[in-house]
Amino acid sequence: MYNVSMNLQRKGTGVNIFTSTLILLKPGIILSVGFTGFTGMVLANRGIPSLELLLIGLASLLLSAAGAAILNNLLDRRIDTHMNRLSKRVEALQIVGGKTALTLAIIFILTSLFLSFRFINTLNGILTLVAILSYTVLYTLYLKRSSPYGTIIGGLPGALPVLIGYSVVNPEIGIDGIILFLFMILWQPPHFWAIAQKYKEDYKKAGIPVMPVVLGTRYTNIFMVLYSISLLPLSLSLWFFKYCSSYYAIAVIIFGIYFEYVMIHSALTNSNYGKAFGVSILYMLAVMASLVIDISLQNSIFKLYAL
Asked: Taking a C-beta distance cutoff of 8 angstroms, is the pair 60, 128 a contact?
């Protein structure tokens, strides 16, 4: 168990309150949420949306992600003390304080919902609320603690930002939005299983029934590879249904093959799970970036021809 008292002689020392708050916000996750939401907006708009929609949509999405992240830290505070890799998060929560963290989370979430329902549309607000509740209640309090398959169903809140972003522009979700949503649903399990393999003992000590702990490394590797392989054809379906050009298709084929190679190699050798985890993040961001660039370029070319 990680001992906070050995690292904090008094509250407010070590890491300052501002830095500690940033740690609790999980900035890496928030940035990923923001980028996938932005990709959903671009997909729905067939180009970069207006500045007003972009700013309001991203503000609501990022605030909801920030609030949910802080709540997750509060709900998992006892579990996190058993995990060495989360020692900074444990320390940060001690510095900020539980009451302050809870107050911030409530302010962020209420502001997010106000922006969504008041300035965007009802669907956007509902999707935002579902994302918050499915992450903090369904996944954090139940699925994470009860089943090795919790990650599969628990991928819902991580995939919803795509639809939340899409609904900022278009409250009627199209097939393209559904495809991107499914891509995120299928991307998250192998992404998480890679880190769960690397920190299997930490999860075991914390009593979290992740797949490597309950079902073993070999079983997890099989699932990790199968899910990874499914992502390439799914990403290509956006090209197949003519939502993107051949340039997008070429890009995602290259990224997809490399991603699958890393995941398969990691599974076959029972090693480099940390690398597989990192590559999975880069792969997802690369697919999203390829989509944004391709649609933006198509839109620009269309406007040039229209002149």
From this structure: yes
pLDDT digits (tens, 9 = 90+) for 127-158: 999 999 999 999 999 999 999 999 999 999 99
| CATH architecture under which domain 175-307 falls | Up-down Bundle (1.20)
Q: What is the pLDDT of residues 186-218, one digit of tens each?
A: 999 999 999 999 999 999 999 999 999 999 999
Residue type, 6: M
Distance of alpha carbon 13 from alpha carbon 96, whole angstroms = 11
Give the span between the Cα atoms of 206 and 196, in whole angstroms.
12
| Residue 238 contacts residue 262 (beta carbons within 8 Å) | no
Amino acid of residue 118: R
Residue ranges of the chain that CATH labels 1.10.357.140: 1-173
Q: What fold, for 1-173?
A: Tetracycline Repressor; domain 2 (1.10.357)
Cα 204 from Cα 2, distance rounded (Å) = 15
Could you tell me the CA-to-CA distances from 229 to 29, 88, 136, 197, 240 in Å, in that order?
24, 34, 29, 18, 18
